[in-house]
Prior knowledge:
Layout: H1 3-17, H2 20-23, H3 32-43, H4 50-61, H5 71-85, E1 89-112, E2 116-118, E3 120-122, E4 134-141, H6 144-148, E5 159-162, H7 173-178, H8 180-191, E6 196-200, E7 226-229, H9 231-241, E8 248-270, E9 272-285, H10 295-313, E10 319-328, H11 336-344, E11 350-355, E12 363-369, H12 375-385, E13 391-392, H13 402-410, E14 414-419, H14 424-427, H15 443-459
Parallel strand pairs: 4-5, 5-6, 6-7, 9-10, 9-11, 11-14, 12-13
Antiparallel strand pairs: 1-2, 1-8, 3-7, 4-8, 8-10, 12-14
Helix pairs in contact: 3-15, 4-10, 10-15, 11-13
Bound molecules: zinc ion (ZN).
Amino acid sequence: MTTKRRHILGFWAGAALLPQHLLAQDIPLWTESDLRQALALRDATPTDNLAYQLVDSLVTEVGSRPAGSAADPRAVEWALAKLKALGFSNVRADPVAVKAWRAGPVSVDITAPFAHRLVATALGNSVGTPAGGLEAEMAYYPDLASLKADTSDRAKSRIVFINQKTERSRDGSGYGGAVMARVAGAVEAARRGAVAVAIRSIGTDRDRLAHTGGMRYDTQLRQVPALAVSVPDADLIERLQRYGRPVVMRLNVQTETGLDATSHNVIAEVPGTDLSDEIVLLGAHLDSWHVGQGAIDDGVGVGIVCAAAKRLLDGGKPLRRTVRVVLFANEENGLSGATAYADQYKAVRHQLVGESDFGAGKVWRMRSKVHGDAVPALQQMARWLAPLGIEAGDNNGSPAPDAGVMVRRNQWPGIELTQDGTDYFDWHHTDNDTLDKINPDTLPQNVAAWSVVAWLASQSSQRFGQSPAA
Ligand SMILES: [Zn+2]
C-alpha cells in the first residue's frame, strides 16, 4: 500500500468515528466568502503597528492608572478619544462603582539578628500599620501550605513570613501555583493570631523590586497589614532564619482602603447587521496598579483588542453580530468592571467573550469554554489559526480574568488565546512594567488571531451559547 493510499484510508477510518451531527452538517458554519475574509484578516500585513502605537500612547500620556486614582478618569478620557478617532460606533463609558485603595509610604527593616533595610511594597487592598509602625518577631514559613498546616501558636503576635517561590512557566501555571500565598496569606496569618504578613514577591525575576497584587480579607477576622518583599530580600530572610535566632522585623505601611469612587468601563462597537443584538466581546482592562506604567498589564491588551476590532472595521465586509470592545474598570483590585458589565448586560446574548491580559508574548494556543454543541465550531476556528503558530487546545479554557467573571456569572461562551508568558512574571505588578518590555514584533500576530476569532464568531451560523440568563 502506498503512503498516499494509507493516508486516505486512515482519513475515512477516522471519519467513521466522528459524531453523526458533524458528518451531516446541513448548514455550513461559515460561507465561502466569510472564510476567505478570515484568511485575509489572518494574513494581512498592515503597514502600521496600531496595537503598539496605542499602548505607547496610553502609557506615555497617562501612565499608571489605579481604579479611583487621579489618573483613572484621564485613562477613561484617553480611551474615549482614541476609540472615537479610530472610527468605532457607540463609544461610551459605563459608570462602575469601585472601592479604591491608595498606597502610601512603605518601609520594612530587619532589626535582629542583623540590621537590614528591605525593598518592599504593600499588597493591593492591604490596611496600613499604626502610624508609628509595628515591630515583632518573624514566624517563617517556606510556603503557604506549611502555614495552613501549622496548628501551633507559633505565629501568634508575630509577623508571618511566607517564602512561596514562583516557578517560571509558559502558560502561567507557576504563577497559579504560587499566587494564593499573596491572596490568602493575610487570612491564614490572622487566623493564627499574627499581627502582619509579609511574602516573597510572586515573581520569577531576580530584581530588587517588589511585586504588588490583590489580596483578600475575611471580615470575620482581624485585618492585618500585608506586603511583599523583593525576591533577593526573601532570600536574605531565608538565610537569616537559618541562624536559629529570633528574626525581628519592623514595618511601617501607610495605605487608605475602601474609598468610594466611580470608574468606567469604556465600550466601542463595530455594529453588526442581521444579528446585531448579539455580541462578540473583545476585552482588556484599562486600569493598572500604582507601580510601573501598566504597559504589559494591561496597556498592551488594550492595544491588541482595539487594533483587532479596527481591522474588522476596515475590512470592508459587514459583520452579522456586533463586535464590542470593552476596556474594563478595576480588574486589578476587585474585578469591579467585569462584575458590573455582567450584571448590566445579563439579558443581552453574548456569542463569545475573550480578553487579552497576559502580556505581549505571542499566542501559542487556543482554548474554549463553550457549550458542548459549539465545540466543533470552535475546533474549526482553531484550524484557521494554526498557520499563526497557534495550537488547538481543549474546551476547559480559562478566559481570564474579566472574561472569566462573565463566563462564570452568566454562562457566556468564552475563549482563551494563551500567550507565551515565560517572561511575564519578571515584570508583572512592579515598577518594571514599562513600555520597553514589549517587543513590538509580537503584537501583529496577536492582533491577527483576535481579529480572525472575532470575525468567525460574528459570522457563524451557529450560536455558541445557550439562551441568555432570564
Ligand atoms: Zn491584568
